[in-house]
Amino acid sequence: MMATDGVNMGQDDSDFVFTISEKSPKAIIISPASGTAYMLGEPIIFRGDGRLANEPISEDDSLVWSSDKDGIIGSGQAIDVRSLSSGVHIITLTARDSKGNSGADFIAIKISQEGDDDGDKIENNVDNCPRVSNFDQADFDKDGAGDRCDDFDHDGWQDDIDNCRSIPNDQKDSDKDGFGDVCDG
């Protein structure tokens, strides 16, 4: 009897009946990365691949995508999904061969339903600067407002746009030099 796994080959004579188990398919999620966060309704492109023992992937139906919260979300190597419910999802890509053998890969993603007005992928309800994008959430002075949203002189103008950060002012700049009139002297 001769046997091969596609790479290695062996041969032996046996007085007994034996069987060689088939290799299960292998599924591979290429993107997105596990831990990625999205806003509710935002498009998500899932990309994956499958390696099937003794047969190539020939049909999209041999790769099925599913969510532990929302069920089957599509099939094929690439799908565009916009309808996942909010919360953490375990996304599974299952590769199945024609004999019913299967293998799977998993990732976790988060779908947020809170708004993200500044587009920094941090929900407004936990963002320390919800109207100005600040991915790092830096807060040097530990005042609870992100550095990009600080208002040192408490005049209602954030430091990143205030034309005189140390003195409260109305932002009037008569000589158009970029500094408020109260800071010109």
Topology:
Elements: E1 2-4, E2 9-11, E3 26-31, E4 37-39, E5 44-51, E6 63-67, E7 71-75, E8 78-81, E9 87-96, E10 102-112, H1 181-184
Parallel strand pairs: 4-10
Antiparallel strand pairs: 1-2, 3-5, 5-8, 6-7, 6-9, 9-10
The SS-based structural class is: mainly beta
Secondary structure tally: strands: 10
Helix content: under 10%
> Largest beta sheet, briefly?
5 strands, mixed
Overall 3D form: rod-shaped
Find the CATH superfamily of the domain at 2-13 and 23-112: Immunoglobulins
Secondary-structure element order, as H and E? EEEEEEEEEEH
Cα separation of the termini: 97 Å
Mean pLDDT: 84
CATH class of the domain at 2-13 and 23-112: Mainly Beta
CATH topology of the domain at 2-13 and 23-112: Immunoglobulin-like
Number of helices: 1
Low-confidence stretches: none
Q: What's the architecture of the domain at 2-13 and 23-112, going by CATH?
A: Sandwich
Question: Concise description?
Answer:
The protein is mainly beta and 185 residues long. Helix content is 2%, strand content 31%. It has a domain of 102 residues: Immunoglobulins (Immunoglobulin-like).
